[in-house]
Amino acid sequence: MSKQQASRQVAMVMDLNKCLGCQTCTVACKKLWNRESGADYAYWNNVETMPGKGYPGRWQETGGRHVDASVKRGELPSLERDYGRAWKFNHQDVVRSNSKRGDTWLRPEGDPKWGPNWDEDRGAGNYPEDNHYFYLPRICNHCTHPACLDACPRAAIEKRDEDGIVLVDQDRCHGYRFCVEACPYKKVFFDPERQVANKCIFCMPRVEQGVAPACARQCPGRMRFVGYLDDEDGPIHKLVYGWKVALPLHPEYGLLPNVFYVPPMSPSAMDANGKPTEAPRIPMETLEGLFGPSVREALATVEAERAKRKRGEPSELMDLLIAYDWNENFQLGAGGSVWPREGRA
Amino acid sequence: MATSPGKIELIAAPIGIQPGGYVPKAYAGRDKAPMTPSLELEVAQPPGAWRLRLRWPCAEPVVDVSEDPSLFPDAAALFSPQQEDTPWVTMGAPGNGVDGVLWRADGERLHRISAEGLGSMTRSDAPESWRSSAAHERGFWQLEFTLSGWASLDRSKRVAVAIWRGSAQDRGGLKSVTGGFLEVG
Amino acid sequence: MEERSTPKATAEATGGKAPAAGLSRRRFLHLSGLGVASLPLLHFESTPARAAATAKPKLLSWEDLYRERWTWDRVAKGSHGWLNCRSACNWDLYVKDGIVVREEQAANYEASEPGVPDFNPRGCQKGACYTEVMYGPSRLTVPLKRAGERGEGKWKQIGWDQALREIAEKLIDICQRYGGEALVQDLGPHFDLGATNAARNRFFGMLGASLPDDWAEIGDLNIGATLSLGIPHIGGSSDEWFLSDFLVVWMMNPSVTQMSDAHFLYEAKYNGAELAVIDPVYSATAMHADQWVPIRPGSDAALGLATARHIWESGRIDLDYVREQTDLPILVRLDTGRFLRESDLRTGGADDLLYLWDSKQDALVPAPGSQGNDERVKLFLEGLEPVIEGRFEVDLADGTRIGVAPVGSLLREHLDPWTFERAAAVTGLDAAVVEQFAEGFAAAERPMVLSSWGSNRYLHSDLINRTKLLCLSLKGAIGKKGAGYHSTGWVGIDGFGQVAQDAGEGFIGTLRGMAKVFGSAKVIGMLVDQIAGKKSEAQVQHELTRHLTTGEDSCLTNSASQNYKFQGLADDLAREQDHLYPQPLAAYVAESEAKGWMPTHPAKGTRPRCWVTGGSNVLRRTNLPQRMLETLWPGLELVIDVNQKHTFTGLHADYLLPAAGYYEKPGIKYSVAYVPYLHYCDRAVKPVGEAKDEWELYSLLAREIQRIAQERNLEPTQGCGTQTVELKTFADRFSFAGEYGPEDVEAVNQLILEKSPSAEGMTVESLKKTGIAKYRSVGGMGIQENLFNSDWKGEGMMRALTDMSEQRWRWPTLTGRQQCYIDHPWFIGAGESLPDHKESPKAGGDHPFQFVSCHSRWSVHSVWRDTTMLLRLQRGEPVVYLNPAEAQRLGVEDGAWAEISNDYGSILMRAKHSAMVRPTVAYYFHAWEPHQFPEHKSYKWLIPGLMNPLHFAGGEGHLGWFFGQYTPGTHVQDTRVAIAPSNGPQRQGEQS
């Protein structure tokens, strides 16, 4: 039987003020883990433009948990409407086509209406007063109380004792998909070819070797921190518990996610004449809707420490977020920052 | 020797006893009525084997689920008790299990199944000799099993049936079942 | 198995062992085969020799299967050598079963100095899936020959022997009939600085082929910076951004186009900097700004002028700096608007000795550092107190007395009208936004402006960039640590230039080559100047480079004038822009040509007869490609695309030769200064299919030419200028007298390293282990400019321009100073002697939308543009971004087809609604292939690409032809279009 409470918990902090929306994390993850045809629609790591429907589309409306943390029947996302079918293309037809006529051009099969990044850079608001958007990268939250684990009638989902990584046992899973429904973040996927569920494994094989997950280590924006939650000297503990600037997504679901976000600052909004106001462009309600009421204080803390830095005063928080030594972003124990140079036997 | 086809009323498997914290709450009340209300079962015993013919209504068959992660296949299972007092509703109990056969409409093969309580079902490849043929016609699935060497059934002469209606997202404990083991011998 | 929708479904099932495939599909992850190997490795005709990756049965737990995936046989260091990406990044390439299965950033950089973040990890999502291009469905793996009409899509696979023989014969034939200059080597934005690119430059250079400079043609050349500073490519390493206290991202989108460097901006914010982003679009960079300045497209100069005025009027001008470093004290004749020259004051005086007014002596004094000042070659004022405002009278040699004034006076008067309110009216901003920005700039200690190559795409971009530089000059920021201007600097890889031409041995060989061109006296004179301490090493190299590229036997030319002459654009451009300047464009071009200011090859009455591209994709990138296809293309007797993949240009070629991909050939990534490391690309695996690296390819082609020439005892042919080309020894010379054979690509890379001071001590062997090594100096002569930091020797932050700002060497301008005043008669005539605001003209007709382009996060030019993995993260097709409210008003739904039209025609794109877009702007991302549009008509079909006629100017100081530094270009952002809803492509045009 799986155990719910792990002895240690590995965790991630993502600083949204450094996110480029470049999707290197998405590609890094995809290349490493999700190349089978049954997983071609699936992105364990995705980056979505907020405000927007996200991926899978409308995931925040698909249930699993009520806002009061009670169970709510979830919805299985649909391939076409919510995930988007992985489009196939006609490359070979095009290079053999008559380019003077141009009646064969490169394009996706079918008439796509949705995909994993369909809402990229769409956002909301009116130009130039309050138009806004920001990027939200998402992986499995490896919750302290995983809804997926709770939902599996077969006890096929395990929260590992040594690091709290939540894994779907690929042998035990019978493909019922209650986990997919129950996860309010919709971060469990289902491989219809193999008929088993799968999800972000927090790059378990890498973490076991002290190497940060691909999405984190490959992030050119240097926006991700990885380490153990109980490591009081590590950046995770300091950002989450010390400075309280890193917040879980949808804390109201009550699952205690172990991925935390430094919420985004934004340029000031403007009035109808285009004059800057005091208000940030991203409405506070939008951020509260995602990160809960603590987001105000978290943002205020970041701004206050920035102001100190502007005045030339030291700030541990700013030093942490600057991340002078990139290797220090990843604290996975002995050898955690050492990249293995040789293939494993 | 064969029984003539008999119409058997099915019930929804009880939700409240399903394992895990999610299904009993999320699907509370779903067991008021079965998704598949009835089943016709015809049993024959050719030499050394069992032939079981099942027929049940299914307006929208779901066969190919290999591309769409939101689809569930139609499926049916037969299981027999390993002991006299094997509990039926929980699919056995620790040390007192059930076993049988699982057919899925998307199937490439039959599964041998066994369970010792809810959530404990294991699947393995069915014996080479076990056969099934299935067809969907005029709103009904017709499924015929030919099974030999099924010790539990040989011994108990009792079998229970479970039907999963894919279009209703039946799977796992969301299923329609016979109200107990049926005497077939 | 039946379709699930079939009403009568049947299914058979049996027990027993399921088929292996079924078992594996059902229960096991496909781990051993790995994703990349399960990709269909689509080849054009044949399947090349490659071990098929087969799934090996494994007896492992499901967790071990995950662990198994993160294993490899070998790791090679590599990068994307030929890729025209303005970054460089080091990758670990994971090889398993002979295939590069994935790549991951090596991340082995160090911080430049304490207190500054390091460069790790560098790399983006495209680099993270180059293997998708390498093994992808557009990959070219075998030589192909056209089997129908050009562009008809009919191809025949041929062997390399046939390809090389036929091409060699055709090249010889064209050289004999028209001369080598009828061969156009389309350099294009796809090359590295290693042996493989040197091979093609060397090969075509030896044939005397034309080599067009298309830096400006593609809209990337910062002529504004050349005009102001004499250098277009400015900036050291990107970690310097971190040190600024007021960062202005002005016409750049680093989150999208400079992904490996962007973090320094956001870290600078945490370090206390204010970040201002000036962009009509609420970009992925603007979202992180403190101030977003939503400016009207093309009106940026107005904001700059108001800022400059405010800096001055509020007393934040750095007077000591501007007196020493800028032209503000240089005297201008009030009667002509020309600088006061020694030749005005005395007969036989120099044309390039200029003056300032010293307030101590109350007298004219030759300006220190002025190009003609042999007495005071540096900028030190040494006791002088030049005035920057005032009016004086001087007597000319002919006895007339005229008024003169320092540039400062003219400038201040020029700036005077540019109040916040006026700038607001022009820019469409609220005056409070202008003021907030101007005050932030003025108050900063270390203001820094990032201005991308994309800042050069308006007709009047030079004015805009001159204005930005003016603001920085007034603040004393240029050349100051943590401040100034970043427009992408370059480290010189001298060895590349030497290997890329057949000039003999080493630097001496280069000098010999130049001596041949210019006569030795000039070159010796330059060296004498350096030895005498009159010029810095960098200055001498700058001048040598310039003279090398402008010599009469140089085959270098520029794309824009080539396009103007041969592409059939002259009538379009005359109609677009002749009303904008005192003379028609044709008159400027004619005067420039007559005076030898701007060379066009082919000259000698011929025209391009052969077009060779190396992935530069000219038909994708050129403006109005329909003109090129109608006018230039039919006259070509040979079109060759040497490329790793199929491109639109390839669709219209005669021969497609498969080039080795980025992981299949050793190379040296080009040397942008953002990251102060040389990037070596190791060969991780053998070339896919029958692909060859270019060193081998051109070595073999050279042999073939020599063989044919000897067999037929051919006479020498003519190259450009007065070159004669001996074909009978062609391969002997190509191979450095047989020293470097077709297999010796690594050895040639070693040779390039050895001849490059910036790579001193580096070896191929050590670079194969590390992938990178920190430069040892900023280098000398290259195809680009060096950083003007002679002191940097590999330690500390690699900064730029310190030779002038700290060592006080003169700037490479006419005045020897940062120069806001241009006194060329053309500039005076056009009212552009001082930076000013000019409206963006309506190109393509008077239509309601400005058609604004930006580089995409999803591709580097057209590489990755058609990559399935990345298309799935977009919308799979080209999209035009529209403001949602405006699109609704037009009835153009999100995701629906939109017809985009102007005077040149119409095209179809899918519409995408985005709140980031300004109303009246239609925004699109760069480099979709035309064959991704219905009818193969891309947005380029609507874009005339205006040419600034003033950039044909020459004959004075730093104005005039200089490869990669001063050439006319084309400007796309002035294009206007109309947008209308569309039902999409015609039914008969649709594919099944």
Outline of chain C: globular
| Unreliable sequence segments of chain B | none
Give me the Rg of chain B, rounded: 15 Å
**Oligomer kind:** heterotrimer
Number of DSSP-assigned strands of chain C: 33
> At the first level of CATH, what is the class of the domain at 849-989 in chain C?
Mainly Beta
Ends distance of chain C: 24 Å
Q: Largest interface, counted with CB-CB under 8 A?
A: A-C, 114 and 127 residues
Question: What is the C-level CATH assignment of chain B?
Answer: Mainly Beta
Biggest pleated-sheet summary of chain B: 12 strands, antiparallel
The total count of helices of chain C amounts to 34
Q: Compute the number of strand runs of chain B.
A: 12
CATH topology of the domain at 849-989 in chain C: Barwin-like endoglucanases
The unreliable regions of chain C are 1-11, 15-58, 505-509, 514-520, 988-992
Kindly describe this structure.
- The complex is a heterotrimer of chains A (345), B (185) and C (992).
- Chain A is of the alpha+beta class and 345 residues long.
- Chain A has a single domain, classed as Alpha-Beta Plaits, CATH 3.30.70.
- Chain A is built from eleven helices and 15 strands.
- Chain A has helices spanning 24-33, 79-83, 91-95, 147-151, 178-182, 204-208, 214-217, 235-242, 284-291, 295-310, 316-322; strands at 10-15, 46-50, 64-65, 71-72, 134-138, 157-159, 166-168, 188-191, 196-199, 224-228, 247-248, 259-262, 268-270, 276-280, 330-331.
- In chain A, the strands form six sheets. A five-stranded mixed beta sheet of chain A has the order 11-12-1-10-15.
- The two termini of chain A are 31 Å apart.
- Mean pLDDT of chain A is 94; it is low at 335-345.
- Chain B has a single domain (6-183), classed as Immunoglobulin-like.
- Chain B has two helices and twelve strands, in the order βαββββββββαβββ.
- In chain B, strand 5 and strand 6 form a beta hairpin.
- The longest helix of chain B has 6 residues, at 151-156.
- The mean pLDDT of chain B is 94.
- Chain C is α/β, with parallel strands linked by helices and 992 residues long.
- Among the domains of chain C are: 16-71, no CATH class; 849-989, Beta Barrel (Barwin-like endoglucanases), CATH 2.40.40.20.
- In chain C, strands 6-5-22-21-20-7 form a six-stranded mixed beta sheet, with helices on one face. In chain C, strands 28-32-29-31-30-33 form a six-stranded mixed barrel.
- In chain C, strand 17, helix 16 and strand 18 form a beta-alpha-beta unit.
- The longest helix of chain C is centred in the first third of the chain and has 19 residues, at 160-178.
- Chain C starts with 9 loop residues before the first strand and ends in an 11-residue tail after the last strand.
- Mean pLDDT of chain C is 90; it is low at 1-11, 15-58, 505-509, 514-520 and 988-992.
- At the A-C interface, helix 1, helix 3, helix 6, helix 10 and helix 11 of A face helix 1, helix 2, helix 3, strand 4 and helix 9 of C.
- Strand 8 (131-137) of chain B pairs antiparallel with strand 1 of chain C.
